[in-house]
UniProtKB/TrEMBL annotation, chain A:
InterPro entries: Aromatic_CoA_ox/epox, Ferritin-like, Ferritin-like_SF, PaaA_PaaC, PaaC. PANTHER family: 1,2-PHENYLACETYL-COA EPOXIDASE, SUBUNIT C (PTHR30458:SF0), PHENYLACETIC ACID DEGRADATION PROTEIN PAA (PTHR30458). Pfam families: PaaA_PaaC. This is Ring-1,2-phenylacetyl-CoA epoxidase subunit PaaC. GO terms for biological process: phenylacetate catabolic process. SUPFAM superfamilies: Ferritin-like (SSF47240). One of its GO terms (cellular component) is cytosol.
UniProtKB/TrEMBL annotation, chain B:
This is Ring-1,2-phenylacetyl-CoA epoxidase subunit PaaA. InterPro entries: Aromatic_CoA_ox/epox, Ferritin-like, Ferritin-like_SF, PaaA, PaaA_PaaC. It comes from Panacagrimonas perspica. One of its GO terms (biological process) is phenylacetate catabolic process. One of its GO terms (molecular function) is phenylacetyl-CoA 1,2-epoxidase activity.
Length: 253, 329
């Protein structure tokens, strides 16, 4: 049987991943490297924001006590956020943004395939809807990795630097802890360590097509985001995101 | 408006229209649309390029003031609405650049002209968005004004422009309602929120009226544009319409329009309004507005920072087509 607290903790991870990445992508809006790219990236931001709202609304229902998607998004401190560290990393140059997206999309699609057959019908339903969007995200980011990797010397150097820089944040997505294992055991979630082989094979294939090198899979990996120990970037991001809710307590917008 | 003070050029060789121009004008008078492949006077082409590209630039620069609040939107629903709205503006820009390209100018050339200061964009986007309420005020007043100008343009003489306007207007109407709805929430909220809304109206009211461009008496190019049916109402006509429409909307919100001279004139059947500070308008157009430098600097930075990206995509496409050719050989 699933325990409500475990499910809540599990949903926060899914919701916070989508919310934090969407927030980062929103920073690009109006400043993308080409008009078409600006619009496409905003589409991804909108998809993720929509997914975040579905996950967080469900989490809020389980939490009860008057919580809703906004109280979860705007009134939790950084140490209560459960997203992986990769997604809170700053946008950097566009190569950093593309690689961050690619690493996550490749995991996200695999994760949603698992969640689509969750024994919790609500989770299965959200995952099914999200997967349709994420399949497109992955196609897009994979395509950009290939084109920018195998583009000019400058673009290839930037992409390789981004891959190397973000690589240590990729491992956390496959790091199973008690929350994951409880979800897997109860059948509403999955053990993320089981996704790594497939993820690595796919990422390797795409990087190779883009003439980029896969860093060592044995490299030291940063972790802690899923347990609420974040990098310095998250609290700064939240201070901006949460400013109005925090400075006008109880107001509706 | 989104296109202000569009220069229609000066006709050389006296006032006589040549035979081709007479035929062209006759077609316009008969309500026949001009399409890209049709013959058109050079001045008509150049004027339209100026007008449509100015409109496109306004959409692109117009992403910035509202984009300023995407990361700080106070609820997830409002954030989604704002993201989608700013994305719509990018879409309008793209659509309008494409319409201008049918007249024989490239998008890169238009972007260069924006960055060099040769091409203008609407004066309104040189004002800052200081609070969240400004996002609502822009939707309500700025998009409201834009619709006022653009609905008639759906019937303008140039086919691609009129079709672009039909599509754009549908989305702008939505934006205006969303902006008004945001302000409604603020006006029904805490005293601080209502004050925020009033402050936004105080700052955006006059710039919104200026958006329609100089008074008719000083609007030297209007007559020609009207003849060509690329402008269907005068600046003052549209401005009056906007005031008449907006006053009851402000009353409904419980907000006060910052104009002591504003009053209903039963004889005219319109609201009278106070004097507009045209010196401010001309200064903003000249580049002295509060945000002119910042807006262009932001656009240029985005463009320059994206150069490697655009070059890489072209380089990759070249490699692919070469290897395709080799495979075919």
């Amino acid at each position: 049987m699933s325990n409500k607290n475990d499910t809540y903790a599990y949903l926060l991870r899914l919701g916070d991943n989508a919310l934090v990445l969407s927030q980062r992508l929103g920073e690009w809006c109006g400043k993308g490297p080409a008009l078409e790219e600006d619009m496409a990236l905003t589409n991804v931001a909108l998809d993720l924001l929509g997914q975040a709202r579905l996950w967080l609304s469900y989490a809020a229902e389980l939490a009860g006590d008057g919580a809703d998607e906004d109280s979860l998004a705007y009134l939790r401190d950084a140490d209560q956020f459960r997203n992986v560290l990769l997604l809170e990393q700053p946008n950097g140059n566009y190569a950093d943004t593309v690689v961050r997206q690619f690493f996550f999309d490749a995991w996200h699609a695999l994760a949603l395939q698992q969640l689509r057959v969750s024994q919790d019908p609500r989770i299965a339903e959200i995952a099914d809807k999200a997967l349709k969007e994420v399949n497109y995200h992955l196609r897009r980011s994979s395509d950009l990795v290939v084109r920018l990797g195998d583009g000019t010397e400058i673009s290839r150097n930037r992409m390789q630097a981004a891959v190397d820089h973000l690589w240590p944040y990729s491992g956390e997505m496959f790091d199973a802890d008690g929350v994951d294992l409880a979800a897997a055991a109860a059948g509403y979630g999955f053990d993320p360590s089981g996704l790594r082989t497939e993820w690595l094979a796919y990422v390797r294939e795409v990087l190779e097509e883009g003439t980029l090198k896969l860093p060592s899979p044995e490299a030291w990996m940063q972790k802690g985001g899923k347990q609420g120990r974040h990098t310095e970037h998250l609290s700064r991001m939240l201070s901006e995101m949460q400013i109005l809710q925090r400075s006008h307590p109880g107001a509706t917008w | 408006m989104y296109a202000q003070m569009v220069d229609t050029g000066t006709r050389v060789a006296g006032n006589e229209l040549d035979a081709a121009e007479v035929r062209f004008q006759k077609r316009i008078d008969d309500g026949i649309r001009v399409e890209p492949q049709d013959w058109m006077p050079d001045r008509y082409r150049k004027t339209l390029i100026r007008q449509i590209s100015q409109h496109a630039h306004s959409e692109i620069v117009g992403q910035l003031p509202e984009g300023n609040w995407i990361t700080r939107a106070p609820s997830l629903k409002r954030k989604a609405i704002l993201l989608a709205k700013v994305q719509d503006e990018a879409g309008h820009g793209l659509y309008l650049y494409s319409a201008a390209e049918t007249l024989g100018i490239s998008r890169d050339q238009m972007v260069d002209d924006l960055h060099s200061g040769k091409a203008k964009y609407s004066s309104i986007f040189n004002y800052p968005t200081l609070t969240w309420a400004d996002v609502g005020a822009i939707g309500w007043l700025v998009d409201g004004s834009a619709i006022m100008n653009q609905i008639p343009l759906c019937r303008c003489s140039y086919g691609p422009y009129s079709r672009a306007m039909i599509r754009v207007c549908k989305e702008e109407a939505f934006h205006m309602r969303q902006g008004y709805d945001m302000l409604m929430s603020l006006c029904r909220g805490t005293p601080e929120q209502k004050q925020m809304a009033q402050d936004a109206l105080n700052r955006w009211w006059w710039p919104s009226l200026m958006m329609f461009g100089p008074p008719d008496a000083d609007s030297v190019h209007s007559e020609q544009s009207k003849q060509w049916k690329i402008k269907l109402f005068t600046n003052d006509e549209l401005r009056q319409k906007m005031v008449d429409q907006t006053v009851p909307q402000a009353e409904y919100l419980g907000l006060t329009i910052p104009d002591a001279d504003l009053k209903w004139n039963a004889e005219r059947g319109h609201y009278d309004y106070g004097a507009i500070d045209w010196e401010e308008f001309y200064n903003v157009v000249k580049g002295n507005g509060p945000c002119n430098r910042e807006r262009i600097a932001t656009r240029k930075k985005a463009w320059d920072d994206g150069e490697w990206f655009r070059e890489a995509l072209v380089a990759h496409a070249d490699k692919k087509s070469k290897s395709k050719l080799q495979a075919a050989a």
